[in-house]
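Lab meeting prep.
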Amino acid sequence: MKRISLFFLFLILLLSFLLGARMVLSGDFFYLYDQARDYLLVQNIVDTRDLVLIGSHSGLSGFFHGPLWLYILTPVYILGSGNPFSFTYAYVGLQLTTVLLAYLIGSKLYGNKGGLLISLLIALSPATWSTVQNTIGVNVVSLVFLGLFYFLIKFLRGNKNSFIFAAFFAGLSLQFETALPLILIPVMVIIFLWNKIAIKNLRVILLSFISYFLSLGTFILFDLRHKFLMTNALIGVVKGGIKEKGYLEFEDRIIAHVNSLLAVYESILFNQNIWLIILMVIIFIIALILIHRNNDIKYRKEFGFLLLFPALTYGFFMLYSYPVWPEYVFGLLIPVAFAFYLALITVWKNSFGKILVIIFFVITSVNVLGFLQNQYLMKYQPVESAGSYINQLAVVDWIFIDAEKGKFGYFVYTPETFTHGMDYLISWKAKSYPDKIPTKNKELITYLILYPHIENDEGAYDFWKKNTLRTNSQILLTKTFIGGITVEKLLINKSEPEVDPNYYQGLLFR
C-alpha cells in the first residue's frame, strides 16, 4: 500500500512540475520588477555580508515584508553565481515542496488517500503551478498556511497546545505577505475564543503570544529602530486612503471584495470552466445538506470551519480600503482545498454524489490533458514580451558585444520608472567582460534601453530624453529586439548637462 501511495505521489509531483515548468524548461521565465528587486537585495546581502531586518517593500506605504524570502534565495544566488536563471530552480522547488507537504499534512490529518487527494487538488490549482515562471516571496504563503492549518485543525479537534504552533505560523506568514497575515490577527483571536478549554489556560495564552511575536522578531526590532514606521503605516491604512492609488469607497469595496472572495473559492479549479464552477458549487451544497442532516459525520465541525474561513477573513477585509489582489490571498487556497476534499468524500457516500465527483474529475482531466498537449506536443512559441528573461538578456548581450573596452554609459526607460531588471542583468553580465565597465552616467558612448511605452504615449521617449536625460546627442545606431525593447547608441556631447537626479529614484526600492 505504501509503495502504491508513493507511486501516485510521484505522478502528482510530476504532473505539477509539467503544468508549471514549460517556460522554464525552454530556458525562459518572466523577469519582472519583483524578481529583479529581490535579486538586487540578495546581491547586496552577499556583497556586504550585512544581515537585514526587513525585506522588500509591501503594497502598504511604509510597511515591509520580512527578510526570510531573501535568505531563502541567498544560497541559490551563491551556488548560481548570481545567474538570474538559477533562481528558477528555487521556484520549481517551492512548487513541488508545497505539493509534497500537502500530501504529508493531508496524510497526517485524513489518512493516506486524503493526503493524495489533497496534494492533487493543490497541484492542479493555478495558484500553485502558474506562478513558477515568475515566482515571488508571496508564493511561500501557501506553504506556510499548510503548517498553519495543520495546527488549527488539531486545535479544533481538542489539542489546545496546537494553537501555540498555529500562532507561530500565522506570524511567519507576514514574512512573505502583508494583507492576509494582518487580517489573520483578529481571525486567530476568534478561533482561539471558540475553544472554551483553551481560553481558561493561561499557559497556552502566554506561549501563543510568545510564539507569535517570536516569528515577528525582525519586524519588532526594525520598528523600534525606526520610530514605529510600520505601525504608523498600518494606522494610516485603517483611517483612510488615496483614491489615486486605488482607494475604494465602501459600496465599491463590497462589490470588489465579494468578487475577490468568489475567486478564492474558484482557485481550487484547474481553470475557470463554467461546468467545473457549477459542479464545485453543487458538490459543496450537497455536502452541506448531508452534513446538516447527519450529526455523526466525522469531520462535520472542521468542514464548516474550513469552508467559512475565507469568508471570515473577507469580513475583516472590509476594513481594507484597496482592492484585494489574488496574490494577497494565495494562502486561502489551503482551507478551500481541505474543505473541498471533505466535501468530495462526503458526497461520495451518496449515489448521485459519486456521479458528480466522477464528472468533475473527468472534465478536469480533459482540461489538463488539453493543456499539456498544447504545452508539450506542439512547438514551443517563445514569449514576445519585454518581460521575457531571454529577450532582455539578448539586449544586454548585444550591448556588451557592441561596446568597446573601457567605460560606457547606459540609461533605462520603463513606464513605471524602476530600472532594477536591467540594472541587475548588466551588473551580473559585466563579470564576464572585465575590460568593459558599464556606468549609470553619461559617457562618450551611452546606450539608451527603451522598454515599450504605454499605449497612446508615442512621445514618451522624446519627453524622457529631453527632460530626464537632458540630451539631444547624435544617435549612432538603433536596434529593436523581440519584445519591443529598443536600444539607441548615442555619441554624447561633452557640453550636455547632468541627468535629472530624479532618474535615480528608480534605484530606491526600500
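Slide two material, second protein:
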Amino acid sequence: MDMYFFLGMGIAVIFVLIVLAICIPLAKKFRWGLDAKSLITLQPGETLIASMVVSWKHKAFYLSRHSIPQGTLDITNQRIVFTATTGTKVNFELKKDDIMVVRSAGLFMDIRTKDRESYLVGTSWKKELKGYLEQMGVPMQ
C-alpha cells in the first residue's frame, strides 16, 4: 500500500513539473499579464508607458488570497494608477512628483511616497516593471 502511495505522489510531482515546463515559457512568449488593456483616460500632455497586471498588497494580513486586490497598473509619464479588477475593490493614483523612491522588496516593488506611505505592488514581470518606472523617471534604489 505504501509503495502505491509513493508511486502516485511521484507521478503527481512529475505531472506538475511537466505542466510548469509548458506554461512558464508560454506565459513569457505571449507576455501574459504584461500587455494589459489600459483602464485610464489620459490627461492632456500625458503618454502611456505601459499597462500590466499586478497585485497590490495594501494590508498586512488577508484571510484569503482571493481577497488580495489584483488589477491593472497603468504607468504614464506623469502618474501611476492602479485599478482593481478582482479582490477588494480598492484603487490608487500616485503623481510622479509625489513618489520619493521605488525599491525592490522581495517578490514586490515598494513604491514610497513623500508622505511616507508604502505601496507594495507584486507582479511576475518585476524586471519589466522596474524598467517602466525608470522610464517614467522616478528615483530607484
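Talking points for slide two:
The chain has a mean pLDDT of 84.
The helical segments are 2-30, 126-136.
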